[in-house]
Amino acid sequence: MEKIKIPKLSSETIVYLMLCGGGILAFILLAILPYKKALRKMDEDIQNINAQINEQKVLKPIFKDLLNQIKAESPQGLPVAPKSKLGRNDTDKLAAIFQKMTRSSHLRLDNFIPDLNTFVDNTGVLKVTVIVSGDFLNLRPFLLKLNRISYLEHIEQVAVRTVKNLKEANFMIWMAKES
Asked: What is the pTM of this model?
């Protein structure tokens, strides 16, 4: 058998080969791997956004139905005031109005808290938290009086709980105001 003769490489050639190999390895480590990692993260983000879009597509008809229910006319027999907006100078009178409404309904106004963020912004609405307490049967006249307020947008939340043998009702109310 004949031996295959391998030419001897000079040390310069070996150093050049090692430098080129190291450069290729560095390129792979510094450019390609982070790029693949970024692509994987983008793919995950795209999948998450697509899932959110599909969720919104499913929820859109439900949202439209709920929105139509909110916009529905009030039931017959309930007194409804014509809609208007709360003037800039009238916002300081709101607490007194609610105090008068609760007193005439035989309730006690425990707290009246306007939301400062909606008070100073120009969104055209004012969020108010009202806490009243008293006999639960007196809540109905209070709600009817509340419905007669012309700048009432909607009542977001009503929470009723018992505190010291009295019922306490917590309302989150949105009022229309001039922007």
From this structure: 0.56
